[in-house]
Amino acid sequence: MPISHEFQYCKPANLDEVLKTLAEYGNSAYILAGGTDLVVKIKEGMEEPQIVIDIKGIEALKKIEQKGNMLHIGASVTFTDLINSEIIKTKLPLIWEASKTVASVGIRNRATIVGNICSAVPSLDSGPALLNYEAIVCLKSSKGERNTPISQWFIGPKKTTRNVDEMVTEIIVPIPHEKHAVYYGKLGRYSGEDLAQAGIGIIGFANKKYHISFCAVGPVPERSEKLEALLNGKEVNNKLIEKAKKMIEEEISPITDIRATKEYRMHIIKVMFERGLKKVNENLKNN
User: Fold this and answer.
1) Does position 192 have pLDDT exceeding 60, yes or no?
2) Which of 46, 153, 166, 174 lies at a CB distance of 3.0 to 4.6 Å from 139, suitable for a disulfide?
3) Distance CA 76, CA 170 (A)
């Protein structure tokens, strides 16, 4: 399908030019990084930008850098970049695991993790990992800059707290000091580019603390503090797992759509939760 909508195109040399253009055009300006989501929407007439701002030429946005106890992931970092990064694999393994499940190789070569959170679809694969690592979203505009916790970023399906004159420049992720093991479970209808029918991310720490988040089973990706409180500090056994699975029914709100029924989503998330919790604890004991 060709693009029939006419728009201006610019490729700024630096971030200041991007912010100036955003300030001038407001909600008529769209940022192009990977383009895997935006181009489809323009082709299908879902979005009609007045100007598209291509940020791929800004080298500063392509970096994965550790600064102290924080890992900085730039706005142009792709999922393939994350998969190929040794520091992501060793320091933030849940992001590494989730990145491998995103769509296909071709999409991962283009799609960015910042673009993923800006699209804010309920099934986004990066959501559970970033929530569990308590990531920070960094935004800039011509008026200044601000940071917001990822837990406050998603406010509805395809909706975030980003203002129209702002750009997400990077995601900052605290690096855990404690030994931990991870699990990311995703169920799709087929291998390839399918979105998640249900997804769950689990981090288990050596001190028996857990971080647990879901995607595709509610209007936004969410972390379950109640479920974590039930598990924290306890020895995991079948009785505790069954109690936790019952609590999941109160913690998520799946819907029926073209990809799955709400009943199936509820069932499979419990299966993945039990499988993931056992795998995390097994890996903690063996490593």
Assistant:
1) no
2) 166
3) 9
- In this structure, the strands spanning 167-174 and 70-74 are antiparallel
Residues 122, 124, 128, 131, Cα dihedral to 10°:
-80
Q: How many Cβ atoms are within 10 Å of 257's Cβ, its own excluded?
A: 12
Q: Is the pLDDT of residue 3 over 90?
A: no
State the Rg of the chain over Cα: 19
Pairing relationship of beta strands 8-10 and 51-54 according to DSSP bridges: parallel
Question: Which of 125, 143, 186 has its CA nearest to residue 19?
Answer: 143
Please report, as a single letter, which amino acid is at residue 117: I
User: How many Cβ atoms sit within 10 Å of the Cβ of residue 47?
Assistant: 16
Tokens of 242: 């069954």
d(CA 253, CA 118): 22
- d(Cα 108, Cα 111) in Å, to the nearest integer? 5
Both structure tokens of 103: 């769509």
Burial of 13 (0-12, 13-18, 19+ CB in 10 A): exposed
Strands 64-67 and 70-74: antiparallel
Give the three-state DSSP class for 135: coil
Which positions ≥6 away from 205 have C-beta within 8 Å? 176, 178, 179, 180
**276 pLDDT more than 90:** yes
> pLDDT per residue over 148-183, tens digit each?
999 999 999 999 999 999 999 999 999 999 999 999
Distance of CA 30 to the CA centre of its chain: 20
Contact 179, 159 (CB under 8 A): no
**Number of C-alpha atoms within 13 angstroms, CB side, residue 6?**
0
Reduced to 3 states (helix: H, G, I; strand: E, B; else coil), residue 249 is helix
CA distance 41 to 43: 5
DSSP β-ladder status, 136-141 and 144-149: antiparallel
